[in-house]
Structures are given as structure tokens and as C-alpha cells.
Amino acid sequence: MKGEPAQTGWERYTQGPLLGLAVLFAVAYAVPVVKPDAGEQVRQLCLVVEWVVWGAFAVDYAVRLVRAPDRLVFVRSNPLALLALALPLVQPLRLLRLVATLLLVGQRARMASQVRLTTYVAGSVVGLLMFGSLAVLEVERGSPDGNIKNLGDAVWWSFTTMTTVGYGDHAPTTGLGRILAVGLMLSGIALLGVVTANIAAWFIARFEHDDAEERRQTEAIAALTAEVRALRAELAELRQAVTVPPPSADAPAASTSGQP
User: Fold this and answer.
1) How many CB atoms lie within 10 A of CB 251?
2) Which of 80, 148, 156, 184 could form a disulfide with 140 if both were Cys (CB 3.0 to 4.6 A apart)?
3) Average pLDDT for 150-167
4) In a domain, 234, yes or no
């Protein structure tokens, strides 16, 4: 669009492709977890895809930084994006790339004006449920004391953890798995709070709309009532003018001399 800042134009044009790359990352991350017996070539391909997606987000951050009117303000206002880009470089763990990609996708989704809050929250719930299941399955499958051994157990555990139900029939036993559990609990509580606030805001907006509509109808009825009263008053004046005609000019004048 003409006249829009360079940074805004870049974000608008890259929003869709980056979200598409995030979906590709999800597939690449899920395949080795769901299919642990996949061949080495498949694993290497998935690894390349993960790093390519991370690289695409790194390029996106660099371009937005260059196009930002004030680069220092941009860095200060996007600390999570910078942290997410640095996480995969700290230690070559796939889980860190997962966390980084989730943070980056979440930031870009929030910046998109066309994405409504409800859609974003629903996508976040599904994403956390899916990635939480895959992550805990990856770290717990090889634990000798663990009881999360397949994708069904992992999805059930993630769902009960996010909703803070916590039946206890499945629970992580490794340190990394417990860290994942804490993150999933906090995320679930936060998302439930957002959903509750969003529903409450919708009801309040609906009630305010109904009140405004009722006030508008009341004012319209009052205006019509006043108009009807004015019309009745005019009609009464017209009727009075018709029933009492003025004296005729041909009528004989009254005698003033006292003679018959």
C-alpha cells in the first residue's frame, strides 16, 4: 500500500509465508517423534527443514530490524523474538528449536491485524496441545520409569495438564519432562484466562449493543409520540376552524338608531 512504512509492508507480505513455514516446521518436528523408526535420510531432511525455518525467521527479524525507524526501540520492544532466535544456538536440542519457533510464530500472529483474538487463542491451544504432546513424548519415551510411551498417552497428558485437571494417570518422570509440564500448565492457565476474558468481553459488548438499540428505539418512539401529539393539535385547530365559520359579509347590519 502507498505511504505505509517499509517495516509494516514487509510484515504484511511475509505474514502468510512465515506461518506456512511454521506449519512445515511442525510436520518436520513431528515425523521423527511419531515415527522413531524412520530412516536416517528422513531424519536428516526433517533436521534441515527445521533449521531452514529457523533461518527464515532470523532473516525476517534482520529485515524488520533494518527497516525499523528506530532500531534500538525495535530491539527493546521485541525481546522474545531475539531470545527465540538465540535459543537454538545455545545448545543443539530440537526442543529449543521448537520453543523458539512457537515464540516467533506467536509474535508474528499477534502483529497481524487480520487475525482475531479468538482465532489466535484457538490456534494457540491446538499448537500447544500438539507440540506439548510431541515434546513430552520425545523426552519421556526412553525413560525407564516413564509411562508416556505413545502419542495417545502424550495427547491425553497434554490435554489434562493444559486444562489443569491433572488426573495423574500419566506424568513425566524426567527433569526436562517436568519443565515441559510447568510450561504447559502456565500456558494453559493463561489461555483459559484469555478465553474467559474474551467471552466476558463479547457478552458485555452484546449487552451494550442491546442497550444502545433499546435506547435508540425508545428515543424514536418518543419522537413519534411528540409528532403525533403535534399532528393532533393541528387537526383539532383545523376542525375548530371548519365548525365555526366567520361572519358573512351579506348579513344585515344591526340597527344602531333604536328604530324598528
Assistant:
1) 7
2) 148
3) 85
4) no
> For residue 164, is it left (φ>0), alpha (ψ between -120 and 50) or beta?
left
d(CA 124, CA 191): 8
Task: Please give the Cα distance from 128 to 162 (Å, whole number).
Answer: 9
User: Residue 125: what residue type?
Assistant: V
Q: How many domains does one find in the chain?
A: 1
The Cα–Cα gap between 19 and 210 comes to: 38
* The pLDDT of residue 118: 63
User: Does residue 150 sit within a domain?
Assistant: no
**pTM, full prediction:** 0.54
Grid coordinates representing 208 are: 451494550
Residue 127, domain member (yes or no): no
| DSSP single-letter state for residue 251 | S
Tens-place pLDDT, residues 80-116: 677 767 766 554 455 555 555 665 665 555 544 444 5
CA distance 46 to 35: 12
